Fold:
Amino acid sequence: MTLYLLDRIFLSVRAAAVLLLLMAAPAWADTPSFSGLKPAVPQPDAATLKPGLAVTYYGVEVNSLRKLEENMDYMDGTPGTPIPMLNYQVGAGNVLTSNSNDMVGADIKGFIHLKNPGRYMFMVHSNDGVRLTIGEKMLFEDPDVHADRFSDEIIVEISEPGWYPIHILYFEKKNTSTLELYWEAPGFGDMDYVPEEVFGHIGE
Ligand SMILES: [Ca+2]
Structure:
């Protein structure tokens, strides 16, 4: 056997070993995982929180969150009806609680109650652009125009139960719109919409 052939065999064996290692890696190895989220300080008084999330709407036609933010720098938004929960897959209908079915930017803020320590898994379904921030950590961003599209699974480890600030920046350019937030949370069973009862906001 020539040295050349031995060399080729060695390379093949090494390639096979690398492939096996990759296949053996657990699926969660490349799933983003977050910890160190910051609870609200001070904690809001649950008795005075209003249901749902506060929203401010911007009438803009943009192709990205960055362009929406540029517009928000100089536009006055319009406060909208609070958003009870994020379960909107409305086709060509009105966007969230706004009166428009296209060209809507939405700055959504409030609190989410993560009442048990442990592992939370979130998923975002969006059309068009969206960014999800909880406890001052950006957990997910899909910033441009797109058809209905799911995020990967977003794993969050919570050590300190309580109310966390939540901020969702979102826009719908035209045609159909979707904004859904799912979770699998300690004490809440299988993957489902994040329920109304864990959202709240201060204000009207
Ligand atoms: Ca759309």
